[in-house]
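Anyone? Bumping this.
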Amino acid sequence: MAEVSLHDISKSFGAQVALKNVSITIPDGAFVVLLGPTGAGKTTTLRLISGLETPDSGQIRIGGQDVAGLTPAQRNVAMVFQQYSLYPHLTVRENLAFPLKSPLLRTPPDEIARKIGEVAEILQISDKLDNRATELSGGEMQRVSIGRALVRNPQIHLMDEPLSSLDAKLRSDLRIELKRIQASLGATLLYVTHDQTEAMTMATHVGVLDRGRLVQFGTPREIYEAPVSIYAASRLGSPRINILPASLFPGAPAGAASIGLRPEHIHLGEGQPARVVRVEHLGDQTRLHLRMAGSDLVTLTETHTALGKGDTIAIAPRNPLYFNADGNRLKQE
Amino acid sequence: MSIFSITEPSGRQKWIAGILVAAYAVITLIPLLWIIATGFKSPSDAIAYPPKVMFDPSLEGYVNLFTTQTRITPDMEATLGEPDTWYERLVREKGMVIAGPSRYGERFLNSVIIGFGSTFLSVFLGTLAAYAFSRFKVPLKDDLMFFILSTRMMPPIAVAIPIFLMYRTLGLSDTHLGMILLYTAVNLSLAVWLLKGFIDEIPREYEEAALIDGYTRFQAFIKVVLPQAATGIASTAIFCLIFAWNEYAFAVLLTSGEAQTAPPFIPTIIGVGGQDWPAVAAGATLFLLPVVIFTILLRKHLLRGITFGAVRK
């Protein structure tokens, strides 16, 4: 396991800028999640670190060593792909053994058998080892492909939305499993997703990418509580942060164009009147959809609320975030 | 149940479909059965009218195919001993004696060497070229692919005379190498196009995964791409073999002795001893076998080839 750092990396595909001047340090043993919508440059970052792509400019270091010119094999990284993650012509056992048998590792057969047994145990696929890769369910396939990364001891694990093709139940199980494995191995992991729950629950650090630029890097908590911009604020939190004109509420600082209110930052019962548009009962929480002076907002209320459609309720901001006209957050003193 | 339903067909539907398929198979197989049967007829049965469906099977055709024979003259008769093999006896009954082996064996072997040699070379070069075209940034890729296809737009026989002169100058006339190169040149465009289609279907993530797993690109090609391209390689090999195996025009033009293949040889059998149709039929029947066996061996891959892409995604 090693620290991985990108220094001033840029990469374009033709006229399309994938990454622009990105610098990021993934500390040894950290679980770093890159967040951003499609096209933000998340996957490109992984491919640059793995050596499948070459940066136009900038430097990548793995364990302090500049890896420019090294092949993917020489970099000793493991990668889990979003799709097509297993070799379809091999059995599960052969898939797991594949990286171990490589000219890079040349693992002796008894060592291969031991490692496969171990990993199969952890991922609960021991009974599937002799199945063909194509005979597995989606969840099993993804577990095996994670297993293929785990049998090795690479400098860094790169994972490209490994859970995105799974159903909700399996995703939440594997999320916990993955975090547990990473913590117990002390593995360095760079994980790409656009699922904010995955970011919040697994990450030690989150990097927010916006059209090829790294706009914020910090702990999930930092990014949730102190986002640098509306864009970064919108990456985390469910329901999403409400962005409203700053003038709706009194007390906005000079230069504020909009106010950002997380659902829990809306105090009910005093302040400005808002109309209830819809009440969503989700079981564990109840969401209130409100309309106020032409703006829509969503907040949470007690599970068994008496409020109904058409009611009016007074709301007031609590610990709001203010953003200027460019969408950047105003620092509050 | 609507006629557009996509449910499992009923028992009766399956029966009707089965009968239709069987009837079609019989119709298409009749010429083949006729040739195979003629190979086992006596020369008189072979030309009998009305045609004989039931006949006494005889191996005369096969014996005639593999041997050259001369008529027994009265002064030879004294020196001849008792026939010691079944085929010798068969020939003696007609008043003939075996003078030696015919050239069919050699011609057949030439067909095998040239057919399989050019098939191997076409598929080998085709796979490498198709992989490069599929995966790498090749300058003028589209133009090159079109050029490769364009070599097939003209019937090859149109350039037979220039090729004949070229081969004579280069000393390639009537050589195995010359015929292998010629058939490879004709087949290669088909091989590159077919195989590129198959390799394009293999997601490149597999190779990338292999690269990251510690393999070089060439090792990834061997261990990951080739096994998955097996279907395409098998289908392409069958197409190439069928062309090279059946090719007649160039074989007549460019070969006469050393490297003559079976197709130009088989018709010459007729001339040897009148109209020896059973021998011709026997030659044709044996000539069918290698392609049939090759196709049966690759059958599993071929079936997957037909449904390739339909079930994967």
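Late reply, but here is one note on the structure posted above: Residues 168-185 of chain A form the longest helix (18 residues).
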